[in-house]
Structures are given as structure tokens and as C-alpha cells.
Protein 1
Amino acid sequence: MTEKLPLLLVQMGHPPLDIRKAVGEQPQWFHAALGDVGPVRVVCPFEGEALPAAGTFSGAVISGSWSMVTAHEEWSERTAQWLREMIQADIPLLGVCYGHQLMAYALGGVVDYHPQGSEVGQIPVTLNDAALHDPLLSGLPNRFDTFLSHEQSVLTLPPDAVVLGASSHDPHQIIRYSPSALSVQFHPEFSAPVMNKIITSRSERVAMKGKDRDALLGKVSDTPTSRAILQRFVALL
């Protein structure tokens, strides 16, 4: 029997120390959201680790980050080039938050700070007609809650990209680039404790500026439909 290739988690940074101490590292969040999905390989390009070649993993999830795509850090630009190569090779990819923005940037889109500021908390996303027959989205509710925490957004789509979902703040919440590559601005891997810690974290004070912390905390419950998108992506590999 052929051994199953691992799922690749491309971790794009460590959470701030206070968040890490309270709710752990990003791979733990993904493992909790996915359950037992077989082998998972984690690679950290921000620590200088090499990104693997096509054919050595079944598909890749590119995580969020506390860095900014517009900083154009070496490891981020190297990952962007790798993403272009993986999309050309038709490797299944799912970008999350920073991963979402980096995929759009890598393919020619524009990423920058959102003109209306950050988007934080449990917030609904609405699917459009183009999502009706998408393999990851078909059959899901037209409107569902997501966990969000970001200051930058995809402001201009790459050529030929298709938007599949939007929030009231950000029209580019879900983007498909090819039959094998899709990204989401929200965090399907977050749990309520992770979202609550981000809302209350001292490290997030810039993103939280002008926001009612208690009101945001009062809205946090769960986002099972958002999590289902991550689970479907892995199930289809």
C-alpha cells in the first residue's frame, strides 16, 4: 500500500508570546480544528526552513501571521514565489488570512492596509452566486459566521481570480485562483478561546483601537461552517 503523503502546514510566524502562552501555537489550532487527518508536516519559512517540492505532500494550508505582506520580508517573498510554482503545478492550496493575502499578492493582486481599519471578532460572511457550485463551498449556508483578525486586506484582485464571499467590511473574503487554489481572509482554525484571547491581548492593541472589546467578546461563540471549509479542503486531498 502506498503511504499517504502528508498535509503541509506552512506556518507564517509565531503568535505573540502572550497569545502563545494562553492558547498555544498555530499548528495546535489547526490540529484541533481538523482532528485526526493523518500525517501533517509543518514548515516554517520565517525560520529559514526550505519549502518542499511538489509531489512530496498532498496539499498545503498557508497560515496567518502577525507580519504584514507589505513588509516584503525575504521569507515571505520566497513563499510567494513557491506559491506561484505550486499553483502552476496544480497543487491543492488553501490560504488563511496572511496566506490569503500572500496568494493574492503572489498572483498579481494588491494587498495593503484596509482604508476602514482592522476587522476583528466573530463576523458574518455572505457567499455569492459564484460559490454555489464551488467544491469547497457548495451546500454551505449562504451566510455564516467567521472569526477574523486582520489589518491588511486584498484591495485589488489578481487577474482571473473569482470572489466567492464577502463581509460588510471586506469584499474579498473568499477568493478562488484556480481549480486547486483558494484562500479565505477569515480563520477557520480559530476556536472561541483563541478569538477571545486575541480580542483581549495586549499585543493586539493597535488592531483593537476604537473597538468595543466587551461587545466583541459578547458575540464570540463558534464558527462551525467556517471550520467546515478547512475540513472539506483536507478531505478532498
Protein 2
Amino acid sequence: MTTPHERELTTGVQIPLVGFGTFLIPDDQAALAVENALATGYRHVDTAEVYENERGVGEGLRRGMQQAGLKRDDVFITTKLWPLTQERNKTSHETVRSLDESLEGLGLEQVDLYLIHATFGREQRLEQWAALAEAYKSGRARAIGVSNFNSSHIDELVEAGLPVPHANQIELHPWSQKPGLVSYLAEKAITPIAYSSLAPLSTWRTAPGHSSGKTQEMRTEGEQSDSPFKKLAQKYGVSEAQFLLGWGVQNGYPVLPKSTNPDRMRQNLDIFSFRIDDADVDYIRGLDRGPGLAWGEVDPTTSA
């Protein structure tokens, strides 16, 4: 049985199951990184307003698509609204302006997926989501969604008479499997998109000044030669990173690995040659640790 390379959103748009993440890539390095990613074979690029690298990503898209002979429809592009200004939550008008600025930075007339990045304040969430719904109707976004939302946040949108999101980008990996939320998303036909897929690696997010939320015990565990993910990767003849990404796509989650190393780029894309057997799937289910790590001690999916 083979794993498909794409997943269809409820809009009919196909989202590649392996995307290129750009979090923590500076704007002046993003163009080369995205250009290399497209040359390697990536067809989904994920960025965000708060990453402050949309102009670099846009330049990389232009150069990379030209060199690879790609059309705009060949590449799926995601960006995200940062819902706050320096003083408060963004209004509907400011949300529209943020999308305008993102499109200008990316050099695009339309993104494939536009997300609200996180949850800050109920009334503002509703106002911002209504603005995204209008962006979808106008064709400036082919699909819209949320990120770091839990089921109650999404219920609020639906109860207000607003559309159901097409996707929810959340932290998902064997240490944070969120079975209740994933089940809820399936019931609502909302595609879960996984970020921080490689969190169980001991080397995950070691960039200076960035807290990964991992305890020293977790780091030490990841370094051990008998780490469960290292042993499982050896069983399937793949790297530990490939195994963790493969677990995500086998569950149907688009994943967003980030690397500026060309060899790792290729490895992270090459995850469709193996399939985790049922016994190992059951074993991994027992490794769930509950809340995620990416936001440190604060889990935005449970914030008010």
C-alpha cells in the first residue's frame, strides 16, 4: 500500500503532504533556501507574517519557479495572519491589510492557504475569521484555516454562523498526538497540518535564543542510542527524521520540515518508500505525552 503525496482540502485544492517550512530562516537567507527547496522537488512552501521573511520567500519562489520551469499552479503557498498589533488584536480592516502586505511581499495575487496564526481574544477571532472568509470568497485565498486552535475555538466560529475552517495547523508528532482534537477535525472535515514534526529529535530547534520547550530529560532521552525513534528508524532503514516525518504523512498530515542543508532537504522529501506496520503504530500511540512543546509551557490551543 502506498501513501499518497497529496491530500485534498474540502475546497478541492490539493495540498502536498511534504512542505518546506521557513520558520527561523531570516529574510536575507529565505530566497536561496526556497529556491533550493523548489529545485529539490518541494511544491509546498509555508511562511507567515510573523516570520518576517515573506519578501525573501517571494524572491525565492520567483527564482526557483523560473529555473525549474514551474507555473504558479504547480506550487502550494501558505502564509499566516499574525492576529496582534503591538497594542491589541487586529480589526477586520487590519486583517485585510495584513493579507495585502503578505501578498505584496510574496509577489502574488493569491495564496493557496491563509491561516490565523494563533488564538487571542474571542471577539477578535470572530472578526478576523470573517475577514478571512471574505478573502476566500474574493479569490485572494484558495483555502482558509486556523493554527493552534482547539475544538472550542472552532465551535465558536461555527456557532457565530461563520464557515468551518479548511485546515488547522497544529503541533503533531509522536510525543504530541492530540487524538481528541484530531478526531474532532476529522468529524468536521478539517485537514490537520503538522508542525514541529521533528520535536522528538535531540537536536530539534537549537537555534540561539529560541526555547523549544523541551526538558533536559527529553533532550537526554533523544540522544540515547536506544531512543525508540532511533531504533524504529533503523528497523525501516531510514533516518530518524525520515521516520518521524513518515509517521505524520502516514496519518494523513501534511508536514513542514525545515532545513537549509541540501542533503537534508532531499532526505526530508524522501519519505514515501516505507510504511510503518500496525504493531509499531500501536506502540507509538502509547508514547503520546499530551500537550505540545513548541510554545514552551504555554499551549495556545487551550488559551482563552
Protein 3
Amino acid sequence: MHAYLFPGQGTQFPGMGKELFDKSKIAQDYFKKGNDILGYSITDVMFEGSAEDLKQTKFSQPAIFLHSFILAKTLGNDFKPDMVAGHSLGEISALAVVGSLDFESALKLISKRASLMQKVCEIENTGMAVVIGLYDVIVKDVCNQIEGIVVPANYNTLNQVVISGELKALNEACEKLKPGAIGVVNLAVSGAFHSPFMQPIIDEFRLVVEETKFKNPICPIYQNIKGRPSGNIELIKENLINQLTHPVMWRHTILHMIEDGATEFTEIGPGNFLRGLVRQINKNMKTTGIS
């Protein structure tokens, strides 16, 4: 069975999508439509903007979605997913490519999500860091010992966990984890995604989700909250909302997909981060990428 994966924030790069735009009429049409929907030229930011420009949440999220969605559309009849999943933001890309959201609805939802998250980032003194080489239970236990808010945000593999929280608590956790870890690296983000610090935007994001029309996807989508396939539209929506304040259960997602018959994983979108995680989770899996 063939599973398709869609990346999240952090995979953006200057010039992303330019080659795709130059080579494909389908891509040109979607990119132009995307500019119209957003009300500004996201293609200018993607094709000509700097890494610093693209790092801004309000630009990086729609840019990554467009790159992933349009790549999938250019595959035409070759895109035949048996199951899909997306990492954080990538969950909306996955929902769109399997027909649960139409292109316009998905892009508007992502644009609103990005602007809300950026607003929180500008207010809170928070951040994120990746911990490599320690079991996830150890990382979680250390976070629990810290005074202040710092929590696991992404369970990427058994021994790669991203933590998220207020800077004082985050830095304290990093110092405690460093002696036993292979590496502890602060991420170039200014917010504590997938943590309680996203709570102030939940109600507003919920309103946007509830106003958005969802359909049943053409295949199972494994969502970040539990890493299990979501069987109905109401559950899909609720999981999408709660994802903002809950950790991305990526290792669990991949293991459940394998358990349910996945034998090949294809990552669609910028970078090769997700296929690398799949190989760490199960080295026997066939992985490919379309980027």
C-alpha cells in the first residue's frame, strides 16, 4: 500500500516552486489562483524572497502548502494514495489533496492559521528546540520537572523530540538534556507551536474551521493527534483544531500506517525531512520523494 506524506513548517527554501511554475501550465494556474485568493503575490516571496522572508509564519505556511498541493496535482493519474498524513501544517495539505478540502478553502484556512500563529509568536517570549539521541519518555520526564511551561511538541522518532515553551523553561530543559543527548538545537522559530501557548487562538481558529466546508476524503488520513485514521468529518475538524495545542505524534502515525499495510512512503513537498524520519522509524520501508 502506498502512503503519501506532506511536510510542515521549516522545510521552506528560497526559490521554492519556481522550477515547477516554469515547467507546468497546471502549476502556473494554481499559483496565480493562490495569489488571487491570498490578495498578495506569494509567488514573489517564494521565488524571489530571502530565507528570512520565508521564515515568517504568515508566508512559510501558505508557501509550503502551495508547493505540496501543486506538486500532487501535477502527478495527475499517477497520484493514487491508499493513505495520507501530514506533519503539522502538512495535515491541511493532505486533506486538500485527498478531496476533503477544496483548494481555495484549504489556502484560506492555512492563511488564517498562519496569521493567528504569527500573532501569538509576536506577543509571547517563547521558542522550540530539537532533542536528538534521548528516548522520548526521558525528554518528557525532564520537561515535567521544569518550573514553567515546556512540553514535547513533536514526537518525530523514538529518539528525536521537539520541545516547545517559554524561553526560560525551554533553556533550562535544554541544559538538563544536553549531557545525555547527541544534540540539543534551538529552532529558528519565535513561537511555541503545539503547546499551551497556542490556546489564545483556539476559539478564533475553531470559528474558521467550522465555517469551512469539509468532505469525506478519498482515502484514510492519519491525523497528528492520535496517529490514527479519522473516520468522519467532525473528528477530522476537531483533531485539526486541537492539533494547535497538542503534540504531533509522528512516530505513532508512521507505525500505525505500517501496521495498517503501508509498504511505500512518498513525501510530496519541499525538502526530504519526513522520508528521513520514516527510515529512522523503520529502516525496511521504501521511501521516495517528489520535491
